[in-house]
Amino acid sequence: MPETKGRVIAVAPMPPEKCAYALARYSRSPDSIAKSIEWVRTHDSAKFLESFYFQYGHGSIADLGHLVMCFEGVSELAATEIEDEQLWDGQARSSRYQNFGKSGFIMPPELDDPGLRELYLVTGKSLLSGYQKIHERMIDYLSEKLPRPEAMDEAAYMRNIAARAFDVARYCLFWGIPTGVGQVTSIRTLERQIRRMKASEYQELRELASEIAEACTRPPELRLDESMAAEAIAPTLAKYVDPDKHSAQAKADLRQWACQVLPVRNEPEPDYLVDLIEPASIESEIAATLLFGVTNHPYRWLYQVMADNASLRSEVIDVALKSRTRRDELLGGFRGGPFVFDMKMDFGAYRDMHRHRRCQQARQEYSTGLGYEVPAAINDARLETMYREAQDSAVAAYGQLPEPARQYILPFSTRGRFLFKMDLAQVEYISRLRSGVKGHFSYRRVAWEMKRRMDELHPELGRLIQATPPEVEDPLKR
Length: 478
Fold this sequence. Notes:
Alpha-Beta Plaits; three-stranded antiparallel β-sheet; 7 strands; about 45% helix
């Protein structure tokens, strides 16, 4: 092993478990990193991880090894669940810049009845047909509405027009559309991801979890440098990834409690795009968040019910903890932020907003309960009849298909209710970034409403947020 020079030493990539072993040993001995790597060459990393990570619970060791993993041909629904980790870095195929119309769609594994499979197939084909036709018609409409500037070359102009047309057409894409995801995670995050997915209600996610664990036992299939040693990427990890039974059981227990105990909400559905609450009671905030994901109620209503009744909120917290073991972390509902945003937005907008990791997120069950969006451009281009036929076919199929398979047929136009909890820095970042003229018109409205709610609640803080109003447009800017 050559001597290192200087105070900054770059280390070449190593198999994730060996990297974790080397850096962990480096922190536990007076040796140089060069000597620690030499030690790893001649000792078994699996034995070290068995002792310190799995037996003694030194989870930080698993943060020292990182893996690159890709998922191809998974549904958009599965991709969203794969990405649902806060300490996660990755990218998915963008529905704003690529034509998804020729990729077909995923058949939910749960659909084994021939008649229901046929209903799903017919509906999926109807949505993709609408997607293709609307995209073509929108290109014609936008080309007429937005003539090419003299300073813009033809190729760049047509790319911009096509992308803006996809912004509208993508409302006919649905959760069953296949996509690809690339991710970089630590060993610990990957373990958490596998355990969570193994307990998923979706068979596709459970199968993917098993495939991830299996992939950890093999050398990587693709290597930039073929001369690199072909070693299994995380063989020790794969032996200890049992399903996260606590999160699944807690969700079922909370849903049952809500059905039996939670009072009936008599007030009408609130008319808002974004609601902002600044909780005064931490206990009420936790209880309301735990209930948010298992009901269809607005967060503000849930919070008020919990704030008004100390015994109820204590019950909710106890129910959520009932199935927890010493190994289980607290559920995401116990994590908070000073500003709580309850957002009603379409699934396409959520797909983009979901990428923001410096906040705590929760969602309600995907359903047709809040209706679907009709973009203004659809009416302007006189495509409403075609658009609604495709959307209504999906709504009808959803009503006939069984859970959870029916969620795959829900288009990106479908509205849902989502919870985002964050600090001021993240409010400012999301509002500024997502309201920009390059963004999709749907999440631009959400980001602008976040800024407006901050103006109302805290004017002195709201003035710090430089967001762009939705009416300010530059359609040919990407």
